[in-house]
Structures are given as C-alpha cells and as structure tokens.
Amino acid sequence: MSTKITRWTLRSKFILILLLFGVLPMIVIGWAGYNASKRTIIQQAMEIQSRLLEQTVASLNSELSMYQMLAGSFGQEESVRQMLDPESSPDDLKRYIKEWDMFNQLMSKLVFSKFEKTPSILIYGYNRKVFTSWGADGSRLADYLDSKAEFKKVLQAGSSERFVWVTPHLAFDPSSATEPMLTYEAGYTDIETGTEWGKIMISGSVAALVDDLASNNQFIIAKTDGSLVYSPSKATAPVAILQEAVAADYGKVTTVLNQGKSMDNSLYISAKLLNDWVVVKEIPYQNFLSELGQIRNILLVVIGLCALLSILLGHLFTGRILRPIKQMVRVMRRIGSGEWTHVPLIRTDPELDMLQRSFLSMTSDLKELHERMEMEQRQKLEIELQTLQSQIQPHMIKNTLAVISGLALHGQMEKIREVVHALGYFLSSKIYPENPLVTVKDDLDALQHYLTIMRIRYPDRIHVLIDVPDALLGQYIPRFTLQPLVENSIYHGMYGEAAIHIWIQAYDISDTFTITVSDNGAGTSNRPLEAVVEAEDIEQMQTYSGIGLSNIQQRIALYFGGAGSLQFESSPGSGAQVEISLPKQQ
Transmembrane stretches, by residue range (predicted)? Predict the structure, then answer.
C-alpha cells in the first residue's frame, strides 16, 4: 500500500531550488571572462590612445613653440625697435614707408621661409604705428584696430603680463573668417629705458593648430582654472574630469583621468601643453568595445532569464514561508500596542503549521494573562486610591472643624456656611464616582470647594489662577487628579508667612491636550515620582497629599497607556511644575 504525498517538505523544496540553480557557476564564469576581455581591450586602447595623444601634443607644442620663437625673433630685431620708437610718428610717411619695407623683409626672413601655414603677424606700437601681415582696405591700421572689440580684448589680456597666450577669439583682420584664432602676445620692452613700447602678436587658426586632434571632434582644451579654451562642435567634459585634468601630476606626457571608473561611458585622457593649458580627449568605450557587443548581449539575455527564474521561484517558495511569519509579526505588533485580535490559520508547510499553531496558542494564553493582570492592577489602584481617600477624610474633617471653630469664635456665620457647604461637597460621592474618569470640569469643581476651605484657613495666602479653554472642559482625566496636585503645591510650596501663587493651565495640542499645575513655592530637589508619598501620622499628613504623584502617574498609564504621561520639574527656590499630557476623547 503506497502513501500519497500531498505536500512537499520545506527541505525538499530547498533541494529542488539548489538543483535548478546549478547552472549559476557557468554564468559567473562566462561573465568573469567577458569582464576580463573587456579590461584587456580597454587597457590596450588606453595605451594606444595615450601614444597617439603624446604625438599630437608634441606636434602642437612644436607649433606653439614656433609662435613663441617667432615673437622672440621679432623682438630681437633692431628694425622693430626703430618701428616702435616713441619719438617717431605715423605722420612721418617717408619713415613709415621705409619701416614697412623693413617689416616685409622681416616677414620674408622669419615667417615665409619657416612656416607652411603662415600665421598672422601684428606689431602694435604705442606710438600709433601698426605693422601687419594683412591690410585694412586703405584705413589707418591704428584706427581700424581701435574700432575692433576683439582686438581690444586681446590687447587687454596682455596688460598685466609681458608674455601671454590669449584664449581663442574671433579674427580682427578685415577677412570674413569666423573660425577662432589663437594669439601669442609678447610685450616689446626697450632694453635701454626698460619701458614697454608695444606688442608683438602672433595669431593662427585654432582649427589648423589642432587638426590632428580634431579627427573625432571629441576633445577640449582648458586653462588651469578649468575654464574652456577651445571646444569643437560644442564638445564638453564633466566638471569632475576637468578638475582632475587640471590637478593631475603629469609625470608622463599623458594621464588617464577616469581609469577604473565609468564616466558617461567614455574614457578620458589628458596632456599638458607648454603654456600649461590641458588637452582632454574623450574616447567612447563603444569605439573599441563594439566587438564584444554580441557576447555581452548573449550574456545579458542569459542573466536576465536566470534573474527572472530566480524571482519567480523565490516568490513561489519564500512566499509560502513568509506568509505565516509575517502574520505572526503583525500579531506581535498588535499585541505590543494592546490590540488582541483573533488570527485565522494560514495553510502552509507542516513545519511552519506547527509553529503557527504553537504561536496562536501562546497568544491566547498571553491574552488571558494580560487581562487578568490588567484587572488586578486596576483593582489594586482603586483600593489604593480608596485607602488614601479614607486617610484624607478624617484629616480633612479635623482641620476643617478647627477652621469652623475659629470662625464661630469670631461670629463669622457666612464663612462657616461656605466652609460647611464646601466640606459637604468634598466628602460627598460627587468626587468619588463609579467611573474612574471624570471631566476636567467636574475635577475643577471639586478643586474649587477644596480651595474654598483652604483660602479661609489661610486667608490672603493662597492665590490660584485657572486658565482652561471651554473646549477642554469636557475632556476626561483620572478622577481626583487636580486637588492632590494643588494640595502638594500648598503644603510643599508655602513657607513662613509668604503667599503662594498656583497656576492651572490647559493647552489644546492636535490630538492631545496638556494640563500644567505650577507654583512659585519653595520647590524641592526630591523626585516624588520614584515612590508613592505615604503619610504615617497627622503631622506628616499636613505636609504631604495623601494621593502621590506616582499613584496619579500609574492611573494615567492604566487608563490611557502610552498615550498619556506625567512629568514633574522642581528645584529648591524655583517652585514646582507638574505637566500631564492626555489624548483627547472624540
């Protein structure tokens, strides 16, 4: 006779999962091989691109160096000194024409014979003489240049430094060229006088200079402050890359900026030019990883299928495990917040079903124990409150009769009537109702009768200010709360013949409300919440309230749980304050 298995055990299910995912090591090995190949290709690409950038930067530095040497060569020529002599004037046409001949000879000697791409030459004298490798359509060159904003920017750039590379600018010659120009500006200083007589400007097309770099238009040139000098086709680089390029230590000619990092799916290589500008070249990974695309796509499909299978199986198997556990957690949280509810059984695996039934049985036992302990605690506090009240009554009657006796001797019948009425109310069942909670209004009424007796007993020494909004008079508090707090303020706070001021205030705070009882009495360094105040004789009864703060605090916790609280603050000479926070009843 065979036994039919209707349920799989948890162990069997986990064995099945392990068997299904035996292919995972194959996926890991394949992915590791792909990453290893990718790293190798990237490393080789970095080396190749670095060598190419080194060659390009060397060529560019050679061009820039020739600009510097050309400016230096012009500056060493005696004929240039004659041209820029401040004693001469462009109005001396005969001399000016002769100097133009000398300038053309210098162009043949220094420029035409050495440069394949002739740069633009401009010698600008502060004596208003200008010599250029281009004409100005018959206009006076000095006046023409003064009208060009681009020339003024270039001239201003060299005002603080003798030698300066000027950020690419538009051409200021009469041509219609719109491509940016790069200018090396050198100040011409007379050796004898030490004063600057003019500027020598060597300009060239940036596009022509960076022709080797511009093959893919994915590079930028930046200054040491991170500002862009040149960027073809609006090419950009992340700010972090620019900052790294500027701060890099160029021990070698080139530096890989984001090695080991992914930055916009590109590799960035930088190099520094001889004028301290940096070239940042972007090489997209796709340029050299395209061959791995097919392998990567296959791996992604395999990984995706495995991930989908893992999610499906994980959902099916772990769901059956977690459902009863989550339900037990929810029940625990409800129990923690004081909510006891019936929990239905969930059909699950045999092992978890046993745990679930044991937990529900334990929950039922805990509920019965909690209810029994709550009832015992409630009865204990009620008995304690009744005992303390029974201790207060004889003491209260004795003191009040003494007051009445004193009033009778003086024939103050009206005050005797007030005292007797207040005492009768105070000892009546109105302040000891069956309901453990009373409204704020009822507790204040009981307090007013108590204060009537105390004001007659201590004339002009007890001043009580009550500030409770009407909206809070119907809220509930534990019965016999305010009178003990005021009594504590009177007996603890009054000293000598000084009067005491007591403030009773209530505040509406969203879903809760707060009642504070504060005084300006003697204060104390004791912490009365640590134990219930107990009176052992009549003298001590006159000093302490029969109802301690601890009893009030326990009743608040019993009736309101964690939503209610009582705080006590006091220090010698600074009075005392009791603050009670309770939830509002809707």
Answer: 298-322
Q: Does an H or E element contain 338, and which?
A: none
pLDDT confidence of residue 81: 92
Task: Judge residue 245's burial from the number of C-beta atoms within 10 Å of its C-beta, 0-12 exposed, 13-18 middle, 19 or more buried.
Answer: buried
pTM tops 0.70: no
Contacts 24+ apart (CB under 8 A), 184-192: 184/64, 184/67, 184/68, 184/71, 185/154, 185/155, 185/157, 185/158, 186/68, 186/71, 186/72, 186/75, 186/162, 187/158, 187/162, 187/163, 188/75, 188/80, 188/84, 188/123, 189/162, 190/81
Which residue type does 545 have? S
* CATH number of the domain located at residue range(s) 77-201 in this protein: 3.30.450.20
- Band (pLDDT 50/70/90 cuts) for residue 113 is confident
Beta bridge partners of 463: 501
Residue with tokens 């809707």: 586
pLDDT in tens, 303-361: 777 666 666 666 676 666 667 777 676 777 766 666 666 666 666 666 666 766 777 77
- Contact present, 274 and 16 (Cβ < 8 Å): no
| Residue whose pair of structure tokens reads 């960076």 in the numeric block | 210
Using an 8 Å Cβ cutoff, are 485 and 515 in contact?
A: no
User: Which residues make up the CATH 3.30.450.20 domain(s) of the chain?
Assistant: 77-201
Mean pLDDT of the chain: 77
Residue 474's φ and ψ, nearest 5 degrees, are -90, 0
The matching CATH number, chosen from 1.10.3720.10, 3.30.565.10, 3.40.1010.10, 3.40.50.2300, for 371-583 is 3.30.565.10
In the chain, % of residues over pLDDT 90: 17
Query: Three-state SS for 228?
Result: strand
Which residues have C-beta within 8 Å of that of residue 460, sequence separation ≥ 6? 499
Locate CATH 3.30.565.10 in the chain. 371-583
How is residue 118 written in tokens?
């002739």
Degrees, nearest 5: CA angle 303-305-306: 65
The residue behind tokens 């680089």 is 237
Specify whether the CB–CB gap between 173 and 132 falls below 8 A. yes
State how far the Cα of 155 lies from the Cα of 68, in Å rounded to an integer. 17
Residue 341 CA to residue 363 CA, distance in Å, equals 10
CA proximity to 471, closest of 426, 507, 515? 507
pLDDT at 294 over 70: yes
